[in-house]
Design brief:
single chain, eight-stranded mixed sheet, 31 helices, globular
Length: 876
């Protein structure tokens, strides 16, 4: 038996199996998985599959070191002589990269014969060695110390490379320029993780006795490849069969007639190569259905295996999930079982759909702080335990944009997100709804997606010309397409951006969406409350949209003081309560709500109802906000045909100070003090109020473009009043700082998978948004002898997930020390996954009358008393 077969890669705890699986056999297992995955996931550049397979066979070459082999003393190879304790450090991913780029580089020369220099291959070697979710360190010296990689180690590794290449017979890599090399490197980094997770699962690749499989070519042909075909099929990564595209009514048979934007989606030419489609149309006009039929056409043409719907908030993601639940299966063959995953929470449509995604490759085990020391099965278990991550590998994923943005930040396993997304149509809904930092992240995500061969669809009712141009330019990085600017640009419209250029076409609007919403100013919260109560008593369904949670709580108290019955909806509820309230909101005010369910109903909410929720009111009061957001809120007025209504017409009342020509610095006053903190550009608020109130109405479609462009035009004369200049300068400073922070934090496509790009922390520690940081707590009830999760579920883990709540770190930092409850919290956390145990627990005690109170610690260590109520949420 050749000496390299003595080196172990996987130890076996079972006495019924061989004590170890060799590096050689495990490496061929992973390479075989890669070869099967390549049948479904084509690389973004033209390269032979055997070449990629041969490279993946080298992913664990760092295990041919004394440092790794010493981890199990009983498996120490005889080729290394008597056991000797090696130096600490040198994880096998770092060691592997050092070996491949240093002493073993000459063995790779035949594979890279067409390449001009060894330096040019470094990104590819970094990608395959860094298969534990982060790039390897750059070596401090060209060769590893002999106590780490002795001559016997190097000889074994070299002999394995020759034997593996003889078995796989990889084709030479063609010459590639810098950009295609980067494309291949990012692809390899994601493929390596997926292949290693599957190829490490004992249930699919049980250890073999090395002495019985000395012929690697035979092992490759007769064992590794058949096992890999079975494993990949069971992993859930092979995409479901897509049915041919036959139009929107096949997906949504209940739709009586196509709207203009949907007709465009059915018939618009699809250019060759990665393409971005930008759809601008009124709220409720059917953009989502248009995106689905367009995505289906791309899938049927073999351009994608599924889609990922990215939305601005959890509420909008929930609503989209429900809309897709009844339709997504019609995209696929009748006998297929495609997966649908909600990417921000823990709910799934049917557990069998998501249990197949890599679950059998997951083998929970204690998680080391050093990723290279974590078994692949444990890494897999930790990563896919959260459905938010599984969504990128499911056929249909729905979630917040934040989850997609983690793919372009230096987070653990970011390339795996990119790998999954690259074979999905990326649908960005409400693309206008992001600040400067997230807008820059979105542009970078589109650039990565296009570079990896993906198609994208952007939806918005209120996108500015500047935003359009930035998104298009990011997607087609070599050019700066001009989409047309100014308030005279046509609306609605659909734009196609590809390497062939930019084509923008005017779309008609369905007659039902030609409307005019009256806009009137409301002077005070007292006046707003009085009008709402009077309308509700007249049987109207009404809403007050506030800009801050504390303002919503104050409004609710004010309305209750007027003897009004209401529903309160904001973000400071435990997840389970929030989902229940959201369902109640949709039941009372949604498209299918009955007249009796709507009559006299009053909702006080924050921005959670601003976008994507298909809800409908007779009258809305809105706090002053930027014009595009006010237009979004107005889109929830008279949204559906309901016959006679208890009010004379669609009317939006804007709680705003008078937009006088020369506003003072405190123009917003105490009433909208929190609004001024949420939307720091007070000049934008002033311009929005001026244009909305001067027009006195929002006319769709004719008035939309002008309202948005004029509100965001900072260059026009008088656009920034002197009294608001200080707040405007602060907002501009934050805007530039946010863009600068994004440029500093984001990954660069042409510098693939570099360790110096960031910390490559777990995604839970990497924020996708600037602004006030938030802390996630889990709420618990104190019961005799134990604590119980606030929300109930038959699955204890899900109950704790549903009990999570996010709070600004400026208000609460962690749980307060409490000798009585700390042992109970520790006992409960023993049953939590390891990666959840750092989450603080806020223990609530019942104080009578259904009131629950608890103590937490503020950022300065001060004690903060909080109360929690299922109808009001968390209060300080």
């Amino acid at each position: 038996m050749q000496e390299f077969l003595e080196f172990w890669a996987k130890s076996s705890p079972s006495g019924d199996l061989p004590p170890m699986h060799s590096v050689a056999h495990h490496s061929l297992d992973v390479a075989a998985v890669a070869s099967v995955l390549l049948e479904a996931f084509a690389p973004p550049v033209q390269v032979e599959s055997t070449t990629v397979t041969g490279l993946l066979a080298l992913h664990d070459i760092g295990k041919f070191t004394r440092t790794f082999q010493a981890k199990v003393k009983s498996l120490w190879p005889t080729a290394l002589g008597p056991y000797a304790e090696p130096p600490a450090g040198y994880p096998h991913d770092d060691a592997g990269f050092s070996l491949l780029s240093g002493p073993l580089a000459n063995l790779l020369d035949p594979l890279f014969a067409a390449w001009s220099s060894r330096a040019s291959r470094i990104p590819l070697l970094r990608a395959i060695a860094g298969h534990h979710g982060r790039p390897p360190h750059e070596p401090d010296r060209p060769d590893l110390p002999s106590k780490v990689a002795c001559p016997a180690c190097l000889a074994a590794a070299g002999n394995f490379i020759e034997a593996a290449f003889a078995a796989i017979r990889p084709a030479r890599l063609p010459p590639l320029e810098k950009r295609p090399r980067a494309q291949l490197a990012w692809f390899l980094a994601g493929l390596a993780v997926a292949a290693d997770w599957i190829g490490s699962a004992r249930s699919w690749f049980p250890p073999v006795a090395a002495a019985d499989h000395t012929d690697l070519a035979r092992y490759w042909r007769d064992t590794a490849l058949p096992r890999a075909a079975c494993a990949v099929r069971k992993s859930g990564l092979i995409p479901a069969s897509v049915v041919p595209s036959s139009g929107l009514r096949t997906i949504f048979p209940e739709i009586p007639a196509l709207r203009p934007i949907q007709e465009w989606a059915e018939t618009s030419p699809i250019p060759e190569g990665p393409t971005l489609f930008i759809i601008e149309d009124a709220t409720g006009s059917g953009k989502t259905e248009a995106a689905l039929v367009l995505a289906h056409r791309l899938m049927a043409a073999g351009r994608a295996d599924g889609l990922f719907f990215a939305l601005p908030t959890m509420a909008t993601a929930n609503a989209m999930y429900e809309r897709l639940a009844g339709a997504y299966a019609r995209l696929f063959a009748p006998d297929a079982i495609p997966s649908l995953v909600l990417a921000h929470g823990r709910r799934v449509l049917n557990t069998r759909f998501t249990e197949s995604i890599l679950d059998q490759a997951a083998e929970p085990a204690p998680v080391s702080s050093e990723p290279a020391d974590q078994p692949a099965g444990a890494q897999c278990a930790a990563w896919i335990a959260d459905d938010r991550r599984k969504a990128f590998l499911a056929e249909i994923g729905v979630g917040t944009l934040d989850q997609a943005l983690l793919a372009v930040l230096p987070t653990r396993h970011a390339p795996l997100r990119l790998f999954g997304l690259s074979h999905r149509v990326l649908v960005i809904d409400e693309a206008h709804a992001y600040d400067a930092y997230m807008a820059e992240e979105l542009c970078r995500l589109l650039a990565f997606h296009a570079a990896l061969g993906g198609d994208a669809i952007v939806l918005s009712a209120t996108l500015t010309a500047k935003q359009q141009s930035e998104l298009a330019s990011a997607f087609v990085s070599e050019s700066r397409p001009a989409l047309g600017a100014g308030s005279d640009a046509h609306y609605p419209r659909a734009t196609t951006v590809s390497n062939e250029g930019v084509q923008s076409v005017r779309c008609d609007i369905a007659p039902a969406f030609r409307r005019s919403v009256t806009v009137e100013r409301v002077e005070s919260p007292e006046e707003a409350a009085r009008i709402l109560v009077e309308a509700a008593k007249a049987s109207a369904a009404v809403a007050w949209v506030r800009n801050a949670v504390d303002d919503a709580l104050e409004a609710a108290d004010r309305l209750r003081g007027l003897d009004a019955s209401l529903l309160l909806f904001h973000a400071r509820f435990a997840m389970g309560d929030r989902l229940a309230i959201e369902a109640d909101v949709c039941s009372r005010f949604g498209k299918q709500s009955a007249p009796g369910a709507r009559r006299g109903q009053l909702l006080v909410a924050t921005q959670v109802v601003e976008q994507s929720l298909d809800i409908d009111f007779d009258l809305i009061v809105s706090d002053l906000a930027p014009a595009d957001l006010v237009i979004q809120r107005a889109g929830r007025l008279w949204r559906h045909e309901r016959g006679a209504r208890p009010v004379s017409g669609p009317r939006l009342l804007l709680l705003s100070p008078e937009p006088v020509a020369d506003p003072p610095e405190d123009w917003l006053g105490t009433t909208l003090r929190r609004t001024g903190a949420v939307y720091g550009d007070h000049s934008l608020l002033w311009r929005s109020a001026r244009e909305l109130l001067a027009a006195g109405k929002i006319v769709t479609p004719e008035g939309i473009r002008r309202l948005i462009e004029v509100a965001y035009d900072r260059e026009a004369e008088g656009a920034e009043p002197a009294g608001l200049r200080r707040a405007t300068f602060r907002a501009k400073g934050k805007w530039f700082a946010a863009r600068g922070a994004a440029w500093q934090n984001l990954l660069e496509f042409d510098r693939p998978y570099e360790r110096r790009a960031g910390l490559w922390e777990p995604d839970a520690r990497t924020p996708t948004r600037l602004g006030d940081p938030h802390v996630t707590f889990r709420l618990a009830r104190l019961e005799p002898g134990r604590i119980a999760p606030w929300c109930s579920d038959e699955n204890p883990g899900a109950a704790w997930d549903l009990s999570e709540i996010s709070v600004r770190a400026a208000r609460l930092a962690t749980a307060a020390p409490d000798p009585e409850t700390e042992p109970l919290v520790a006992a409960a956390k023993k049953f939590w996954p390891v990666w959840d145990r750092d989450t603080p627990v806020l223990v609530l005690r019942e104080r009578g009358g259904g009131a629950f109170r608890g103590m937490a610690a503020g950022p300065a260590g001060n004690l903060v008393e909080v109360s929690y109520d299922r109808t009001k949420g968390l209060q300080f």
